[in-house]
Amino acid sequence: MDFSFGPEAGELRTRARAWLTEHLVGPYAQALGLGGPGSEHEGVDARRAWERELGRGGWIGTGWDAPAGAYGQQRLSLTGQVVWAEEYAALRAPGRVGHIGENLLAPTLLAYGTPEQQARFLPAIARGEELWCQGYSEPDAGSDLAGLRTAAVRDRADGRLRVTGQKIWTSLAREADWCFVLARTEPGSRRHHGLSFLLVPMDQPGRVEVRPIRQMSGTAEFNEVFFDGAVAEEVVGGEGDGWTVAMGLLALERGVSTLVQQIGFAAELERVVRAYAASGAPDPVLRERLVRQWAELRTMRWNALRTLGAAGDAGVAGAAGDAGAPSVAKLLWGGWHRRLGELAVAVRGARATAGPGLWERGAPYERGLDEEQRLFLFTRADTIYGGSDEIQRNIIAERVLGLPKEPR
Question: Would you say residue 366 has pLDDT above 60?
Fold first, then answer.
């Protein structure tokens, strides 16, 4: 397969780089490199303003299955989306706070939503004005999503659905204006039956509460969200058909963003290689591990390009055609990133057990950690969040290889 890009891609790359260079100034320049995995709490105000700047430039929703300009967005081919994403990552532009709305909810609304829902929500996402979070996992229903207990019942007074329950591991819940929530709307239903995909405003004092979850890295990217009779404004895909919508959304979760992620991985790997070179103590075992990490990262890039190319030029939504591709990608990058975290501290040796201010009396724990220590601690979760390795292997076994399902 030819992985090279044509001349049109070169022209877009030049245009994208020029736009980013022109606009990444002032407070946005101060936010360069902020907001990535493990640091989503950093520079939120500047990154939220940056989201609106991207909207004014038409850079949000470039891969939506909608005509160019329908919601104020540019329309880029699949190759164009990759080029834009690569330039964005290469310049270390601020981590996106609107990516959940742009890459998950919007394509889902285009596939399952009504024209009224699309007209209500897509323009605000494209302008960077409304942010979203995802209400799927629960304390007793993480990887086993069909076991969720959050319920929504009709209010006899006004006929609106009111949501009660708890969601967990919710990224950007403190910043989000809305949450798309999978809830049980049919009393007595079991597993994937009787579920609905609901759109819930987060600004409902006394009915929606967000509590940060402090991690062992000292930061709190994830949250638990409590709903106590919160009003659901919309149902997507029809009441009781939430499982179909939810699974359609999950199939969209790994597309062009995988390639963006890999650029960040490459920067982290380069930092670890520099640390190894500066150590002055060549270790053939560590050197072999570093070479293997580099080779595996290249392989992941080629696999991502092959998968996206096989989907044609239909954008992110087209990437859902291969049922096993998202699971393969998650298994590859989750294990790779976790091994990189282990390698980062192995290169440091005994020095990895201490850091600037780590033992300073009264100092916040996270302030004493350097980048490699944070990388190691955060990547412990890579093979769990977003669907554990065990779940991904089950998906491949059952949906791709046709093996019998596990007994329940």
Answer: no
Q: What is the pTM of this model?
A: 0.79
Cross-strand partners of 164: 151, 228
Which amino acid would we find at residue 276?
Y
Q: According to the CATH classification, is domain 132-241 in 2.40.110.10?
A: yes
Task: Report the amino acid identity of residue 188.
Answer: G
Handedness of CA 179, 183, 186, 187 (dihedral sign): negative
Q: Are 108 and 236 within 8 A, CB to CB?
A: yes
Please check the confidence at residue 154 and state whether its pLDDT lies above 80: yes
* Total residues found in the chain within this entry: 408
338 neighbors 380 (Cβ within 8 angstroms): yes
Check whether domain 254-400 has CATH 1.20.140.10, yes or no = yes
Write down the domain spans for the chain.
7-97, 132-241, 254-400
CA distance 118 to 110: 7
CA distance linking residue 81 with residue 74, whole number of Å: 10
Residues carrying an active site annotation: 253
